[in-house]
Amino acid sequence: xxxxxxxxxxxxxxxxxxxxxxxxxxxxxxxxxxxxxxxxxxxxxxxxxxxxxxxxxxxxxxxxxxxxxxxxxxxxxxxxxxxxxxxxxxxxxxxxxxxxxxxxxxxxxxxxxxxxxxxxxxxxxxxxxxxxxxxxxxxxxxxxxxxxxxxxxxxxxxxxxxxxxxxxxxxxxxxxxxxxxxxxxxxxxxxxxxxxxxxxxxxxxxxxxxxxxxxxxxxxxxxxxxxxxxxxxxxxxxxxxxxxxxxxxxxxxxxxxxxxxxxxxxxxxxxxxxxxxxxxxxxxxxxxxxxxxxxxxxxxxxxxxxxxxxxxxxxxxxxxxxxxxxxxxxxxxxxxxxxxxxxxxxxxxxxxxxxxxxxxxxxxxxxxxxxxxxxxxxxxxxxxxxxxxxxxxxxxxxxxxxxxxxxxxxxxxxxxxxxxxxxxxxxxxxxxxxxxxxxxxxxxxxxxxxxxxxxxxxxxxxxxxxxxxxxxxxxxxxxxxxxxxxxxxxxxxxxxxxxxxxxxxxxxxxxxxxxxxxxxxxxxxxxxxxxxxxxxxxxxxxxxxxxxxxxxxxxxxxxxxxxxxxxxxxxxxxxxxxxxxxxxxxxxxxxxx
Length: 593
Known about the structure:
Layout: H1 5-36, H2 38-49, E1 50-55, E2 62-63, E3 69-81, H3 86-97, H4 104-116, E4 122-125, H5 130-138, E5 146-155, H6 163-166, E6 168-171, E7 190-194, H7 195-199, H8 201-204, E8 209-215, E9 221-223, E10 239-240, H9 245-255, E11 261-266, E12 273-279, H10 293-301, H11 323-332, E13 349-352, E14 355-358, H12 370-376, H13 379-389, H14 391-400, H15 426-434, H16 443-448, H17 458-469, E15 473-475, E16 486-488, H18 494-507, E17 525-531, E18 540-547, E19 554-560, H19 566-592
Parallel strand pairs: 2-10
Antiparallel strand pairs: 1-8, 2-3, 3-4, 3-5, 6-7, 8-9, 11-12, 11-19, 13-14, 15-16, 17-18, 18-19
Helix pairs in contact: 3-4, 9-19, 11-13, 11-14, 12-18
């Protein structure tokens, strides 16, 4: 078979073209890999050579109203491990536990952290004690994947004195990492768990930094410093509160180890929380880096419930401190006057429906008007006042005054009070609670004196008394400084408002239920209360009031669990009034001087 010369030429030309195309394709691929995608492959190489190590951000410092530190950061240490596989990690943790004590829980948490993000160092200790760090530094050569670094550690200088409102921080839980509120958080990071640490987490948290360590092909650290420029962490901004630390410390010293209960102190016109304490308290510093099991058990088994915030979570019958609400409702509805006497004088009990409803004064108070009934806390007067108001108006009035609502204080887990609802009807509430035939309208007698189906928080009673101390406007309690918020609770005439304040001042004057709590040279106002706590246990003791009488600067609510009588709570309040007003006067003199 013969080929024409032109065929041979065409084939040679085609072959040459094919060779050129092949070289162009190969050259293009080489150019793309070596030039165009150089940064991508360099980055992949960097990822294999470098590992990112997070640098925790200091949380924002929390201050009291005068700039004293409530929560700050001190130097601490964290310990984490880098590993190339789960098996290698388990083996390292096994050997590590032979050098320093590791609980099964710590090992399990570290393993889960690795499984979630294998390229990120798995945290072993978020707050490693110095002795542990010292031992690990001595054995660092035995653990090439070990990362030991300084980390900011939260610290509360006043510890138990501030725990009730500041809360504490802890390591973010595994289930929280999936929540929208914690988007962007990583395992091992510290978050606010309670108090304002939790409420203002987004403001306090700061922004994590990072550094890089160089590892070999086995994932072992070969260089810790200078592998790549660091991104420094950014501290969270400071948080200014309304808390008066000196007053807070004074209140804590009054309670000591013997009293239990809750206290809230507010500025009446702004709602600024000057102090908030729940006794007994706990040490928030011991929660940092994981609470010791023994301390946690101690807190959980203590019958006094130190983790239960009695100022914002505890719900107690407000007793006679609630009589002012009955008085306000009666005055607003025009069913009684301040100088009006009830038809039946107090002889120590009031008969209604074939049953005797007792007054705390067995000999009775005789025939008295509303002002005097407040001063001496006459139950018989308020039984009749409650009947005159009637059940439906009393419940509707209580709802309007906010006794079914939270106070709105800016810390989490505040409990709602317990109080009947008025819609669709009060009868419906009691029918559901007791059954249609198992109650009568006699329940109004107990409600009128702050007993029965009425349990309030300490902070909510303090909020109500800010309205009594001012112009009927209640202030929302605010721990952190921000724009005050007030809402009108009731409309009384100036004479009615003045009359109620005068009656509250009479409570602490000669002949009142808190006469033993007078302060020489100062007129204060308030109401005691003695609330039933349960069969076989002493009563709870209440006092809610304000001072000075003519120009209120502070509202105080004190509730002593099993404190027996309201006079005892009034004496606690007296000490708080004296301390705060003396301190305030001293500061004014100092500034003016």
